[in-house]
UniProtKB/TrEMBL annotation:
This is Uncharacterized protein. It comes from the Bacteria. It comes from Lactobacillus pasteurii DSM 23907 = CRBIP 24.76.
Length: 78
């Protein structure tokens, strides 16, 4: 997994997620709902990756990810 320290564009996020899904035989989907702040969201979703000890997201970040345990959509901080 890669660690991204700087913001990615929406297109970059989609491209990275699409490649990861194809390489790992996974399906990229769309999630519609609300995040933990109650804001309505409509965007690409992917399995959540846990932050490391420094709070950096390890994995392939997207603008919106969905916690696969709770099903809650959470905003991603780059």
């Amino acid at each position: 997994m890669d660690v991204f320290d700087k913001p990615l564009t929406v297109d970059q996020c989609k491209e990275i997620a699409d490649k990861f899904c194809k390489d790992n035989d996974l399906e990229l989907g769309i999630f519609e709902g609300k995040n933990i702040d109650g804001q309505k969201i409509d965007g690409y979703c992917f399995a959540a990756f846990n932050p490391d000890d420094e709070g950096k997201l390890v994995g392939y970040p997207l603008h919106i990810i969905v916690d696969h345990l709770s099903g809650v959509a959470i905003p991603v901080r780059f």
